[in-house]
Write a structure and sequence with these properties.
The chain is an all-beta fold. It has strands spanning 25-27, 36-38, 48-51, 61-66, 73-78, 84-92, 99-101, 110-112, 123-126, 131-135, 140-143, 149-153, 156-161, 167-169, 180-182. The chain starts with 24 loop residues before the first strand and ends in a 14-residue tail after the last strand.
C-alpha cells in the first residue's frame, strides 16, 4: 500500500498473501503510532502468536502481549491448541519494571523462578572456560569446571574454595592438602578433632 500522501486503508477479517505497507500499520487500531502497532481489548489470547512447525509438541507457539488489567508485558508458552501452559517465560511489570523469568509476579528487579530443586533450572553464567550455576532451592553456587570459587567484598577476595575442596579464609593460596587455611586469628568456643 503506497501513495503520496500514504492513504488510510482499513481491512476487516482475515488477510492472506503478501502485503507491502509504505506507512504505519495498525492491527486492532485505526491510528497506529509506529510502523507496526498492535492493539486489543482482551487479555487472552495475546496480541502476537509466533509458531514454529519444527518445535516439540505443545511447545510450538509463543504468545506475546501487554495485559489490560495491569499493563504487564508477558511472553507465554502456549500449547498447540492455543491454550496457555502453566509456564510464563518472561514478564515485565508495568508498575516498577521488575523482570521475571518463569514467573508473572517478580518481587525484585530480576527474579528467576525454579520449579525443580536442582542446579539445572536457575541462573547460569558461562564463559569460554567456566560455568557457574546458581540455585535458590539448593541455596548454593556450583562451578561446572576446575575453577576456584571466590567470595569477596571491598574489591578483595576474602574466601576461596579451591577445586580440590580446600578452603582459604584471608588467603587466596591455601596450603596444598589442607582443608581449611586461615590467614588471621581464629576465635572459637570449642575445637574438636582427631589425629595430630
Amino acid at each position: 500500500i503506497f501513495g503520496s500522501p500514504i492513504p488510510n486503508v482499513k481491512v476487516a477479517g482475515e488477510f492472506t498473501g503478501d502485503l507491502f505497507v509504505g506507512g504505519n500499520l495498525g492491527i486492532g487500531t485505526t491510528s497506529p503510532k509506529t510502523r507496526l502497532h498492535f492493539s486489543g481489548n482482551t487479555d487472552f489470547p495475546p496480541f502476537i502468536l509466533l509458531t514454529s512447525e519444527e518445535a516439540p509438541a505443545n511447545g510450538k507457539t509463543v504468545g506475546i502481549g501487554s495485559f489490560l488489567g495491569n499493563g504487564n508485558f508477558q511472553v507465554i508458552r502456549m500449547t498447540d491448541s492455543g491454550a496457555a501452559t502453566a509456564r510464563t517465560d518472561l514478564s515485565i511489570l508495568a508498575s516498577n519494571g521488575n523482570v521475571g523469568i518463569g514467573t508473572d509476579a517478580p518481587p525484585q528487579k530480576l527474579t528467576i523462578f525454579q520449579d525443580t530443586d536442582d542446579f539445572g533450572n536457575g541462573l547460569r553464567v558461562e564463559s569460554a572456560s567456566a560455568i557457574a550455576d546458581l540455585s535458590a532451592s539448593l541455596a548454593g553456587v556450583r562451578l561446572s569446571s576446575s575453577k576456584d570459587l571466590l567470595l569477596g567484598s571491598g574489591g578483595n577476595t576474602q574466601v576461596i574454595i579451591k577445586s580440590d575442596g580446600g578452603v582459604g579464609i584471608g588467603t587466596t593460596a591455601p596450603a596444598a592438602g589442607v582443608k581449611l587455611d586461615v590467614a588471621g586469628i581464629v576465635k572459637a568456643t570449642v575445637f574438636e578433632g582427631s589425629g595430630a
